[in-house]
Structure formats: structure tokens, C-alpha cells
Amino acid sequence: MKVEGWVFGLGAVFFIPLAAIYWYFSRDPIGTTALALSGGLALIIGFYVLYTAKRVYPRPEDRLDGEIDEADPEYGFFSPHSWWPLFVGLGAFIIALGLIFAVWVIVLGLAALMLAIIGWMFEYYRGEFAR
């Protein structure tokens, strides 16, 4: 967990001075606030992860003598051939367009999104990859 903590720590080191530089050159309160809050959030997460890394047993990824076999074998199942995430994203995109243009487009996007989610859920119940 130390690597993750240092990544967030470096994010804080980057964003906080960047907020000061941005404020000096632009005097824009909204952008300065967004950069400062990004730096603060990275600082909080980095501190928490580094603090927790001292209290827990080191993972195999954190040790120099760690082996692949020591890692948790169950990371979940990820379908390598699925097209359904693309259609879920397309349905969400249609909903976002409906927020811009018209309410009836939101209804169309919701229908497309529901069909895509149902297709993704039942992908392994029918067809070539049925189990």
C-alpha cells in the first residue's frame, strides 16, 4: 500500500502549489478552489493509505521477496469478449444528451440502458458462452 500512498502524496505535492500558481496568474476563485480541494483530497487519501500501511501486514506487492502465489487469487471474473459495456456507455450517453436536448431522449436512453444492463447480466446464460 505504500506505492499507492506515495502516488497520492505526489498528487498533493503537485496540486497544492499548482493552485497557488494558478491563483497568482489568473485570480480565478473557482479554478483555484478546485485545484486546492484536489490537492487536499489527495493529501487526505495519501495520509490515510500510508498510515494504514504501517498498521497492516505488508502485501506481497509491497515486499521485495513477494511471490505471485502469495497474492489473493480471487480478483473476480472479467469477461474478455463482452460488448455490453459499450452499449451501457451508449445508453448513459443518450441519457446525457437528453439532459441537453429533450425529455423524450432521456426516456429513450433509459430504455437503451435497461436493455444493455439486462443483456450484460444474462450474457452467460445463452449463446456460445453459456455455462
Protein architecture, described:
The chain has 2 domains: 2-70; 84-121, no CATH class. It starts with a helix and ends in a 10-residue tail after the last helix. It is mainly alpha-helical. The protein has helices at 2-26, 29-55, 84-100, 103-121. The longest helix is centred in the first third of the chain and has 27 residues, at 29-55. 67% of the residues lie in helices and 0% in strands. The relative contact order is 0.10. The protein has 4 helices and no strands.
What's the arrangement of secondary structure elements?
Blueprint: H1 2-26, H2 29-55, H3 84-100, H4 103-121
| Low-confidence residue ranges | none
Strand/helix succession: HHHH
Mean pLDDT comes to 91
Rough outline: flat
Integer-rounded radius of gyration: 23 Å
First and last CA, distance:
37 Å
